[in-house]
Every structure is written in structure tokens, then in C-alpha cells.
Specification:
Length: 184
């Protein structure tokens, strides 16, 4: 089993992300990519900051997608720090508690770290083994056409004896299951 802790989706196609007409993926495209790479469940992260891209995907959009695909996706929320009083010490607990009660399991971004693991494989395997109880699997699928080697790399690392079964299972799904109470 794999739980991907870093996915993005938009309800429908909008303004392309770049001049090559790369689009953000729809839930159906993310799901198809998950099927192709052997990922069972995923956590959707909103895209709310206008500085970060061309198309937004609000927390409400993510909740709607998760309601449509309850056995496939889980929701995270994101709160723009300018919300509320627009002050550096703003209390965003009202926003966060609201989204928690709507079913969001967490907040914001969790970086994938694939390049860090593969740049120096020996270090990557050692790091995964030492900290396997603290690492979440994540691909950051945004574009339905971009290849993601993350699941195969983790499977191969286990199959070749580079990481233990415990590390493989913790990273691929057990940590997400425990942290977010997924009941898997």
C-alpha cells in the first residue's frame, strides 16, 4: 500500500501553468497517475497563493474533490497568512478549526524530497532507514504528464535490500496512517 502525502488537483482545467500549456491535473488525472504508479490513497493540498501559480485550488475545492472520491483522497487545508487581521501575529485558529471540523487532516505543504534521496543514494538509504518513522511518502503530482519515479524508487530500494521492510512500510503508508488516523 502507498499513501501519497503531497498531491494537487483542480476541479477543472483553467489557465495553463506555463507557455508549454502544462495544466494542473484534475482528480481523474491524479487518480489515473496514482493507478499507473501503484499509489492507493492520496492527500490533496490546496493551491491558494496567487504568487505561486496561475490557477487556484481552494480548500473548499479540495474538500469537494474528497467528498466526490472519499476512498481515494484525503484533504489538507491551507490558510493564507494574510487572512483575518492581516497582522504578523494574527490568530488563525478560527480558520484552522473550521477546516479541521470540515474534515481536513492537516495544513499546507509537505515537500517530497525525492532529489535529496536520489542525489546521494547511500546517504538517502541511510537517512530513510534511520528516520523511517518520521518520513511521509509524497510525489507532489501537479501535472498529469510529468513522470514520477518515487514509488518505483522506494520499491526497488526495498527489493534490493537497501532499506528494511519496516522502513519501506512506514514510509509508503504506515506513518501517514498513524499520523492522520486513516484506519488502513
Amino acid at each position: 500500500m502507498f499513501v501519497d502525502a503531497h498531491l494537487h488537483a483542480v476541479r477543472k482545467k483553467g489557465l495553463p501553468r506555463n507557455a508549454a500549456y502544462s495544466d494542473y491535473a484534475t482528480p481523474e488525472e491524479v487518480s489515473a497517475k496514482m493507478d499507473r504508479t501503484g499509489v492507493d490513497r492520496g492527500i490533496l493540498l490546496p493551491l491558494i497563493s496567487p504568487e505561486g501559480g496561475f490557477q487556484l485550488s481552494t480548500t473548499e475545492d479540495v474538500l469537494e474533490i474528497c467528498e466526490t472520491y472519499p476512498h481515494r483522497f484525503y484533504a489538507f487545508c491551507n490558510v493564507d497568512p494574510r487572512a483575518g487581521s492581516h497582522a504578523p501575529d494574527a490568530d488563525l485558529s478560527f480558520h484552522l478549526n473550521y477546516y479541521k471540523h470540515q474534515g481536513c487532516l492537516g495544513v499546507g505543504e509537505i515537500t517530497a524530497g525525492f532529489n535529496g534521496f536520489t542525489r546521494d543514494p547511500e546517504f538517502g538509504w541511510s537517512f530513510m532507514e534511520r528516520l523511517n518513522d518520521r518520513i511521509l511518502f509524497g510525489t507532489e503530482i501537479c501535472d498529469p504528464l510529468v513522470s514520477h519515479r518515487h514509488p518505483d524508487y522506494l520499491r526497488t530500494s526495498f527489493a534490493e535490500g537497501r532499506i528494511s521492510r519496516e522502513a519501506f512500510e512506514n514510509i509508503s503508508w504506515r506513518n501517514a496512517n498513524q499520523l492522520f488516523g486513516l484506519g488502513l
